[in-house]
Amino acid sequence: MGVDVRMVLKKMMWTITAASMLAGIPVGGAAFAADSVVSSGVQVKGFQFLDKEFDRISLDSASKPDGTRDGHLSLLLDAGEGVEIKSITMKTADAEGKDTSHGIWKTWRSEAGDIGNLLAVVQDGKYVNASFQKSLGTFKGMIQLELYASDNNGMKPGDYYYLVIETGSGTVKTPITPFAENATSYAPVAIREFSWKDLTSDRTGVAAFGEDGRTDGHFRLKLSFAQKTEVLAVILHGTDKDGNPGPGIWRTNRAGTGWLLGIMQGETVITPEFKKDVKEPVGSFRGSTVFDLYANNNGSIKEGEYYTVEIETTYGTVISKPVKFGDPNGNYINNAPLGFRSIGLKLGSTEAVVDEKEDTLEEAPFTLEGRTMVPIRFIGEALGAKVDWNGQDRRVTLTKNDIQIELVIDQKEARINGKTVMLDAPATIRGDITFVPVRFVSESMKMKVFYDDGEIMITDAKEAAPTTNP
Description:
By secondary structure, the chain is mainly beta. It has helices at residues 18-22, 376-382, 438-444; strands spanning 43-54, 70-78, 83-93, 99-106, 117-123, 126-127, 137-139, 142-150, 160-167, 171-173, 177-178, 189-198, 216-239, 245-251, 259-265, 268-269, 283-296, 306-313, 317-319, 323-324, 332-333, 342-346, 351-354, 357-360, 366-368, 371-375, 386-390, 395-400, 403-408, 413-416, 419-422, 428-430, 433-437, 448-452, 455-459. Residues 1-37 and 463-470 have low confidence and may be disordered.
């Protein structure tokens, strides 16, 4: 992954709904523009607010986070034979599409005094604009873009958003899309326990781990990782009983205000000091892991007060329910299943993990025409689909619930529930094993794909049901 290959797809997810959009199947209620030819030279095929899971950018730069999770949106365009996209501006609106002036985000600020925060554009895991940029470049054919907008504390349920896209040929405006947050975090991690321990420990200072003569708030955190997962940040918040912000914040990096959150795993100190680079992760973890958290007590940690812990990962963010310090019945314990399935693969490796269980592939995933190819039978069966092979027609059919996908070897044409769509790369055979583009199959079956330095995770974590566009 890359953008800084560490910033966006090493530390950032792809949530791409392109396959089903291309098929003409609305995915999750995304807002669509008409498919008529427009004077701008570009057609909007899909625009959707996905989630607010990540802190990737600041108000004016994509080079570092700022401590506030960003709005994350998906944009699918047809640029035809080629068109220059000069700028994209995102604005807020009400349910009728009327401007509300709650915020404005831009890829380019044309002059001094021009207002608006940065709208960062990502394509294939790489930033198109790391800051304000006069032109985003020339694009051709179907293009899938991700948009990140640092929240100005105005992104909330009930708001709508639309884009104004300026090209070398004209301007096009998208339909509005509603604010949305996914019902289940994409992160393959569960907080199994978050509990208070004591107010007598002295293990960390305000900026470096070690005794400083002042006692700490001591918490216990138990996490369960379904896949090997990179933890980007851990943040302890003071809250009220409902989880609303209260006094005190402790964190592992300086992406925002707060004192150091000291973390130990057994006898190993995980955070000897603030991470010097706000993009540097806490570490990668797998399986069941227990941590001790130490928060230097500035007077706000006391019995009867409430606290939550937030775990930001490459794939998303999970947050505990509030814990009441000093109350034996006030701790957070969660033994429920993760609530979604996950499949882990790696380019060039036959190792695989399905829902924490290790497995071995007959042939390793590889890239073809820039697309990630995976063994169809393994993926299909792991997703719970029935997989059929017709040797005479060289046809693969996947069936799961009400979805049927048909692909023919060496052809870029496929069918979803009888509708013809075009693939990024054709199905192919390697070592007697049939391989297909992972993004097409998984997302056509309503799964999501994430990439991290050659590692691939597929999950069926669901987005919240979006509001229908009026």
